[in-house]
């Protein structure tokens, strides 16, 4: 396998499937199957998941809610998604640990870097919830931060499209796909795939990012095997 240890970033919206909000159990089961295929090959897997299918702090702030309060609500939404994913993975026979940046000791371990790495070394899948534990930071930034801390080989960002395009391919039929980009190109072209803080942190720590279509079965395994799937951002 090309990668020994990965940080998989999933959006909360990805868990909705065809629903308007919430969690689609069928989509959750599909993701668990795909994750199992690489787990069975010995890949060490850490996961960060968003909470946009339940609540977005930015959306709440635009409706008059206090931004900090809204962001904390969003962090709790990521914990709910993390618990759902944990259950789906364990249904497939995998051992998991849920660690959260906010202390919720009845349901999850507090995030401790050394403990997380030890779980990975023992073959457990570690899910990181509650983002960075701080308002004003996205789960994209949390994914890169955790990826750097655990010395992941790559950030795999699973989305609904098969890479980074010149424009939103769901809105612009003339949009063309990039096979590879540098971090500087992503920032200068203002390609809104991840926020600039996440890209800058990844660039400073020389941690490559692969953006790919998580909804196409088998893509996750192909990337870990070294196939050119999606768009690679590095350098």
How much of the sequence lies in strands comes to: 15-25%
Number of helices: 8
Q: Compute the average pLDDT.
A: 93
Structural class, please?
A: alpha/beta
**Rg to the nearest angstrom?**
17 Å
What sequence of helices (H) and strands (E) makes up the elements? Answer: EHEHHEEHEHEEEEHHEHE
Report strand order across the widest sheet.
4-3-5-2-1-6-10-11-9
**What sort of overall outline do the alpha carbons produce when their principal axes are compared?**
globular
Beta strand count: 11
**Oligomeric state of shown chains:** single chain
How widely separated are the two ends?
Answer: 22 Å
For the report, how would you describe the main beta sheet?
A: 9 strands, mixed
Brief overview:
The protein is α/β, with parallel strands linked by helices.
Would you give an account of this structure?
- The protein is α/β, with parallel strands linked by helices.
- Helix content is 37%, strand content 19%.
- It has helices at 25-39, 57-62, 67-91, 113-121, 139-149, 183-188, 196-204, 219-225, and strands at residues 5-10, 44-49, 96-100, 109-110, 125-129, 154-159, 164-165, 177-178, 180-181, 209-213, 231-233.
- The strands form two sheets. A nine-stranded mixed beta sheet has the order 4-3-5-2-1-6-10-11-9, with helices on both faces. It has a two-stranded antiparallel sheet with strand order 7-8.
- α1 (25-39) links the parallel β1 and β2 (44-49).
- It is globular, with a radius of gyration of 17 Å.
- The two termini are 22 Å apart.
